[in-house]
Amino acid sequence: MRQWVAGVTVVTSRFGEVQHGMTVSSFTSISLTPPMILVSLERSTRTHGLISASGYFGVTILSGAQKQLSETFAGRIGSDEDRFKDIETFNLLSPAPFLKRGLAFLDCRVVNVVEAGTSTVFFAEVMAAQSGEDFDPLAYTNRSYFTLEPLKE
After folding, report:
1. Partners of 29 in the beta sheet?
2. pLDDT confidence tier of residue 77, bands split at 50, 70 and 90
3. Which CATH number fits domain 7-140: 3.40.50.1000, 2.30.110.10, 2.60.40.10, 1.10.10.10?
4. Where would you tag: which of 8, 12, 120, 138 has the fewest CB atoms within 10 A of its CB?
5. CB half-sphere exposure, 91, CA atoms < 13 A
6. Which residues, other chains included, contact 57 with Cβ-Cβ below 8 Å and sequence gap of 6+?
């Protein structure tokens, strides 16, 4: 699976006073009407627990300029440290925080859950969406980040 090229997102949630987020590439659009997406998260993660408790999550699609955010939310800092420290966030409809300067933001409400091996697939309706900065998207494959460039015709 390391050979698969994927865009990079940070999925976030909040329940009460606790917020958390993680870098996720298992993200897919599944319906335009109504707008629906899915994310797949390992059940042992804190973000999984918050989404399960709250029923909501946010997706920030990262730009090529946000590699460091991807690394931070992938857990490259200590597990007890606040991943949101010194990072500007905002909200749409739900309490889920979004990371400023992303390409796009999707505020989602869980409508179905499917257990799959050690992960859970959360199917969600997009309640609100917002475009962000106009940069190239951040992509990931085989443990390397890059940005996409259109093919020359």
Report:
1. 37
2. low
3. 2.30.110.10
4. 120
5. 9
6. 11, 12, 13, 39, 47, 50, 51, 94, 96, 108, 110, 122, 124
| Size of the chain in residues | 153
Rounded to 5 degrees, what are φ and ψ at 80? -90, -10
Task: Give tens-digit pLDDT for 34-43.
Answer: 999 999 999 9
What is the C-alpha separation between 17 and 14, in angstroms, rounded?
Answer: 7
For residue 131, give the H/E element and its range.
strand 119-131
Q: What is the 3-state secondary structure (H, E, C) of 27-50?
A: EEEEECCCCEEEEEEECCCHHHHH
Helix/strand number for the chain, H first, E second: 2, 12
The residue ranges of every structural domain in the chain are: 7-140
Task: Tell me the pTM.
Answer: 0.92
CA gap 66, 72 in Å, rounded: 10
Whether the pLDDT of residue 149 is over 80: the answer is no
Q: Which residues pair with 41 in a beta bridge?
A: 120
